[in-house]
Amino acid sequence: MSIIFRILFVIAGAVTALFVARDALNFTIIQTFVAILFVTAILGAGSLWSLRRKT
């Protein structure tokens, strides 16, 4: 489980670095927000995929 979170935060850190400087004080907060958005997007895509397979 921790490996999944590490990979998720590495990807979120890379995306966040495109918009916010790494030495900004709120970088980790924005990185966490981006990671939560990724989790939400993955879960939403999974639920939509499940609905598509049922029909």
From TrEMBL:
Q: Which domain of life is it from?
A: Bacteria
Q: Which UniProt keywords apply?
A: Membrane, Transmembrane, Transmembrane helix
Q: Which positions, given as ranges, span the membrane?
A: 32-51
User: What is this protein identified as?
Assistant: DUF1328 domain-containing protein
